[in-house]
Amino acid sequence: MFNILIIEDQKNMRESLVIAFKRAGYNTDSVESGEKAVELQQDHFYDLVIVDLKMEAMDGLEVLSHIKHVNPSTEVVVMTAFGTIDSAIQAMRKGAYDYVTKPFQLSDILSVVERALEKKRLSEKVNSLQKEARENYKFEGIIGNSPVMMRLLNILVELTNSESTVLITGESGTGKELVAHAIHSNSRRSDKPFVVVNCGALPENLQESELFGHVMGSFTGAVKDKKGIFLEAQGGTLFLDEIGETSFSTQVKLLRFLQNGEIRKVGDNKPLYLDIRIIVATNKDLDEATKNGSFRKDLFYRLNVIRIHLPPLRERREDIPLLINYFVNVYSNKLRKKPPEISGDAMALLLNYPWPGNVRELENVIERAVTLVKGELITVADLALQTASPADTMNVMIETGGIRAALAQEERKTIIESLRRHAGNRKQVATNLGISTTTLWRKMKEYQIVSKTSYNTENA
After folding, report:
1. 352 or 25: which carries more pLDDT confidence?
2. pTM over 0.90
């Protein structure tokens, strides 16, 4: 049973909510002030807190900040009679799940609570599965907690006891080699070689020789025997990237190996039988390639035993902040420097950028920024990415789940506009926005808003 805390200074409202939530089956406590809530939270854990925005002494936003600091997993719903974008932005920025505007129907707030608790339940399940997977298996570099990444982790766990051939598909830069390496590292072959071959980098006339080896004199230039990549992978895993770039003659030999484990060196009639697991990857549509005759159907059927598709980064944008944090720490450690923070504008741009080069491009951008940044804050200027229009940024982030970053952008614009209207008078701005001057100062610092006596749209 979930535990809920209600913080509301109006007695009638507070008591009505307590009755409604208890009838709905929740363990419910209530207090009339933020100070009492902070005190109560020291000895109690709550799955969800419902807090009024406007209260004396400690307001709802301060309570929200305290709750998220003590128990980040606690979901918070803010109630406000001042349903403006300003209050919504501040609440969401501080980690609130949602906000409701007074007056409201009890059924409405109960629906919000149900959704918040369902999100919490699913998040805990995902975190538990992810923790278990990462503790028990080697998934280094595979970052993300989006639904598609959780499905990938589940598949990789299932493959630990498998010897099946795996076909990995996806655009360039999505991490196909990382996935192949994870499959190998969690298999019975983990102490054997993991050999990577980019088939697209092998000249077509040398593919067979490079992969399967040759004997001396088998062709002009074959001045000595060549071992071949397959023999180097004996006992382990051979990862053939860009499998769609192989020649027809190479495809025939690969098919023979998959059928009976046999290879023959170029110029040699003596078969060699090897124990190798094959993992292949491609950014091409092999289904289409078999239809137009550029790839053998029988080989495709042999390769397509277990298929793993890696989506482009633009289709799992909720993983971008995790990837950014990972790469920032990786390259900061390499450079032996303190990991820099990411400004609000920079994060918004990173969330909105289409990433044609996928995770590999994101890694390169972060490596460059960490290497060249002056100070401890990465800004838009450090990213060397083409910016998008504010409207596009807002729309894409809302559509892809980056609502907090989008709201942060709107909050920054609201503050700048208010500063412009009040000629930079912080006290008037704070009063207008319903926040303290201290909070205003902190947000100006966070959003890198320079204090001036006048403001125009160029500050946005």
Report:
1. 25
2. no
